[in-house]
Structures are given as C-alpha cells and as structure tokens.
Amino acid sequence: MSATLTDRLSAVVGRAFEAQGLDAALGTVRPSDRPDLCQFQCNGALAAAKQAKRNPREVGAAVAKALKGEAVFATVELAGPGFLNLTLTDEALSEAAQAAPAGWTAPTPQKIVVDYGGANVAKPLHVGHLRSALIGEAIKRTLRAVGHEAVGDIHLGDWGLQMGQLIVQMAEERPDLPYFDEGFEGPYPEESPVTVDDLAALYPRASAACKAKKDELDTAVREAAASRLAKAQGATAALQAGRPGYRALWQHFIDVSLPALEADYGRLGAQFELWRGEASVNDRIAPLVARLEGQGLLEESDGAKVVRVARADDKKEMPPLLMIKSNGSVGYGSTDLATIDERAEEGFERCLYVVDKRQGEHFEQVFRAADAAGIMAEDRLEFCGFGTMNGKDGKPFKTRAGGVLRLSDLFEMVLGKARDRLSEGGVGADYPEEERQAIAEAVGMAALKFADLSNPRTTDYVFDLDRFVAFEGKTGPYLLYAAVRIDSVLQKAAYEGGADGFRIGHEAERDLALALAAYPDALRASHDRRMPHVLCDHAYAVAQAFSRFYAACRIGDEADRDVRTSRLALAKATSEQLHTVLDLLGIALPPRM
C-alpha cells in the first residue's frame, strides 16, 4: 500500500508524540486551515493534554522541539493553545510532488461490482438517469485506479410492471399480432413490430391507462384504470411465468431498446461491463425462495411471501421485503436479492449501488435480507445514494411543459450553449467545422459532467446551464481550457523531459508543487467516501495553482536554462495529473481550443 503525503507526515509527527509517552495516533497531520500561515497542521496536543493531564501548549512545545531536527520540515511553529503549524522544505515538497503520480493503493484490493445506470427497457433515458451514470462511472474508475477489480453493471429494468403495461397496450392497439394468440405455435416474427421511438410514445399511453387522477370523481374512469392495471399485472405475471408470445414480444422490446441506451450512455462516457437486467436472475428466484423458506425466513402475508427485516432497535418502522406478490409475480425485492445471490456466487466481495437516495429504505430491506440469509454480509453491501438535479424552483428538473426531459434533448441543449459560448469567445474560429463541433461536444460534456460531479454526491443541486458552460470559475470548461493551455506551453517549448526533480524557489512554484502533492490524499478520500467531488475540488485547486504559476513565472522563455527545465517539468507534471484526474471523472479533453 502506497502512503500519501499526510500519511508520511503523520508518521513523523506521531513518533514525536510517542517520544513524549503519548499515542502516535495523536500525530495526525492534515492540510492547514490557514494556508497563509503554514502548509500543514497537527492538533493532537489538545487531545493529548486531556489524556496526560498536562497543559496542551506544554505538550505542543515538547513535540515541536522533537520535530526541529526532522529534515522534512522547514519550520515547526507552536500556535494558540497547542496547535502545530508545519511547513515543508522545498526539497521535501519537490519529492512529494514527484511521487504524486503513483497515487494511492487500496490496502486490500477486492473484486467489486458497481450497480449504476438502472435504465428501463422501452423508455428513453431522461435527466433522472444522469447522476447515476456519471457518479457510478467515476466511482468505478476510482476503484480501478487504486487497485480494485471493479465491474460496472447497468442492471436494466426489464422485468417489472412496465413490461406488462406495454404488452397490454400493444394488445389493445394491435390485437392482430401473433404474440397475443395463445394458440399460436410459432415461429414468431424475427422483425420487431415496434421501434424504439414507437416504445417511447407507447409507454406513456400504457402507463396513463393504468392510472386515475387522485381527484377523479367519475366511477367509470376509476374502474377502467383499475381494470387496466389488473390486466397489466396479469400480463407481467404471465411474462415472468414464461408465456411464449409475451417472451417473444419482450425480447423485441429489449433488442430495439439496447442500441439507443448504448448510444446515450456512450455519449456520457459510461462504459458497462455487464448489460444484465432484472430478468437475468428470474430462474434463480424460485430456488432462492425455497432456501429462504427452509431457513425459516419466509412468511405469508395477505397471499404474498415476504421476509421480515425489522429489528428491535429500529427507530422507524421497517416494512418486510416483498419476495412474491399475491398474484405470483416478482418485483424489485426478489430480483435485487437474487442479483446479490448471483454476484456472491460469481466471487464479488463487495457490491456498490449508485442509486437515488430516496430509494434508501428499499436497499436497506434488501441488504438486511441478504445478511439474514447468509448470502452476503450487510457491511459488504453499500448504498451510495445521490441527490437530485433540480430546476431553479428547487424541484427535480423538468421541461417547461412540466414533463421529464429526455437525456438526448438535454445533450442538445448543452451542446447548443457550448457552441454559443465558444463563438462568443472566438475559440476555434479558424478551425475546420468538424473540429469546432468536436470541441463544442467536449466543452458541453465537460460542463455537464463537472457540474454534476463537483457537488457532493448526497446533495441536490440546481441546473444552471449558463453558469456550467462558463470558462471562468469552478467549471468543466475552465478545467479543459487550463489543461489545453498547459499542453500548448509544453508544445511551444518543445519540452521532452530532462529535469532531475523540481527546483523550487518561487512561491508560485511552491504552491503548485503542494497542490500536485495532494493528489494521493484526494484519491484516497474520494475512494473511501465514494465521493467524486473530492477529485473535482483537487483538479480545480491544481488548475488554479498553475494559473498563478503561469502569471508569476516565466516558463518556456525563462532565460536560466536550469530554471526553465525545472518549470517545464512542473508544467508537464501538472498536465499529466489533470489528464489523469479528468479521466477518472470521465471528462475527455480536446487536443486544442
């Protein structure tokens, strides 16, 4: 396992605490809250004072004295009631910046499946699918970067009530099709009777037919909706039971939906290794239910079969996990539990679920059931819930008409705004049209991705396209421009390497090296917390540090050869780190802007 800079500094300071007869853990070092005063700080003397029943400043002074001889520190200063302010030597800082590309390695690499995406077959992707795809992909890439064997599973919604609703709607609109004739012996047509656009129009009608408005007073309307819903539930059960015509029609739904899903996810840069759906575990459910029954975990409840997962110390009511509905069909509870059973059998040691945080209770039910059944321990199942992307009214983002915005339409909105912003700035005005389009695509996707990922995963955020596509401030386009500018500096200088470390002498060089040295810590924090925004913060800090360095120091045209070589090496290290971090975030860079 590689150690981060704060790990190494904490070990040094920890030994100084041990020399005073105190716990080494008190020597934990972290970046300074006051970078104008020092680079790092340690507050352990305050906690040590309570343990040793000594004055904290006395403890701090003793530790500071012990650290005076450590070559890594340029200054060790005692502040306030016992805070230790620490600043590295330029040599130590240079070494840390050079070591940063190694990143951080997880102490126990694991085989991990990341469940994200969650798209429904027969429905186009909409803005509600954005966060799962972006956050899940970034988490998966981060897991791989630190040494895990991480696999992404889209976990398609292809086996629930929406399938029954579609089947019934098609039976109403096109009853002549052979899929609805129970006496038909096949073979069924190879060509699909619907396109993906047909399904996109069909599903809203199918869904609406099963619902009556809450304030609907017309008894006939309510009865019609209830009747249609009962038909859809029956069709769902028949599909899951294996009715041939329904299975054939369902396969058409899958076949026409997947290319559209692959295109939208591909544009987002989400790369799934597994394209499995809920249906893939259907044959596992009956044996699993039998196992649960044999373990005494399955109970009858109003004609359904459930697993009770409530615990005595629960502070809120925890409903049972529904395994088999009263009509014999299965739902999310049974397919999710069967999926964990399959993943455990395939050797996955941990499962991460990147899902809207509003589904937290459902996954807690599933995880508790998996633990109780001995399928997978609850502490190996992680719910990585995320907040919503909201409009300026604070509610989940909708179209002006109040509908859910298709992801493809969102892409066009972002691309159009990116084109406008590039034209306003005269960026690429003399480039070929094809290249200008590619740059606009890169800027638009960077704006969309960074805007989402730079917010803590668990929080909601407001969609503000004008702010997202700005080339100033904490935005994706700003980072693209920073990275491309650095590459341009290196190209103009024809830099091919050759520096033996960084010769740090200017404050701007010092700040940039310090920012670069923080990468392993940022990588570990992003991994441990499953929070991509930590890497966004790091990338922005590095870009800002380079901007100050660029403004304060001559680089490619510096007269002193050794200084020029060192500064170009620092610029090269910055370029490589930004490329690495942006790739972890799934953000692609254009060659020039």
Task: Describe the protein in words.
Its EC number is 6.1.1.19. Residues 3-88 form the Arginyl tRNA synthetase N-terminal domain. By secondary structure, this protein is α/β, with parallel strands linked by helices. The protein folds into four domains: 5-88, Arginyl tRNA synthetase N-terminal domain (Gyrase A, domain 2); 111-157 and 271-390, Rossmann fold; 161-268, no CATH class; 407-584, Isoleucyl-tRNA Synthetase, Domain 1 (Orthogonal Bundle), CATH 1.10.730. It contains 20 helices and 13 strands. The protein has helices at 5-18, 44-52, 56-67, 90-99, 130-145, 161-173, 196-209, 219-241, 244-268, 282-294, 332-345, 360-372, 407-425, 433-453, 465-468, 476-492, 507-517, 519-529, 533-552, 561-584; strands at 30-31, 40-42, 73-79, 83-88, 111-115, 149-153, 298-301, 304-307, 321-324, 350-356, 381-386, 389-390, 461-462. The protein has a four-stranded antiparallel β-sheet with strand order 1-2-4-3. α2 (44-52) crosses α3 (56-67). The radius of gyration is 29 Å and the shape is globular.
Question: What are the salient characteristics of this protein?
Answer:
593 residues; ligase; 10% strand; Rossmann fold; globular; nucleotide-binding; 20 helices; Gyrase A, domain 2; alpha/beta
